[in-house]
Amino acid sequence: MGAVSSLRPPRRITVSPLAAPRFGDTVLLRSWASDLVLKQEMIDAVLEALVPAGYLDGDDEPMLAICLDEAFANAIRHGNKQDRTKPVDVRVFLDDERWFVVAEDHGEGFDPSAVPDPTTEAGLMAESGRGLRIMNAWLDQLTYYRDGRTILMARRRADR
Prior knowledge:
The chain has about 160 residues and is of the alpha+beta class. It is built from 4 helices and 6 strands; from the N terminus they run E-E-H-H-E-E-H-H-E-E.
């Protein structure tokens, strides 16, 4: 199955004022300065935690990289306003069935329902919204916590 064919119609994105729950075993717990130069290093660290463990297959890896790129860029740019003194905290959890990636920024949060839908005429030319739509369509779970300052992304294991 190709990566694009694994997309599904978007679901409602949930937002909670609570902290993100912890699932399974922690395989990565690290913080990075809010610097776009470090974004690829962040993506590579998450992929290195998941690929050798068999949680991703060849089609999953590029799609997850897109989701991570979007989440980390948003945390750095919009959440922490590229303030290097504010970290982006990343956790990766595994259980028998799924992987989970949590990224937290230290900004003011946001409301994903305020992001323009890129499939509408009004949102078609907007400079934002496409990444959120892709994440929502590919992931099994996309939830924002702490009023939009924390994102939890989850998907079932590739081999299940």
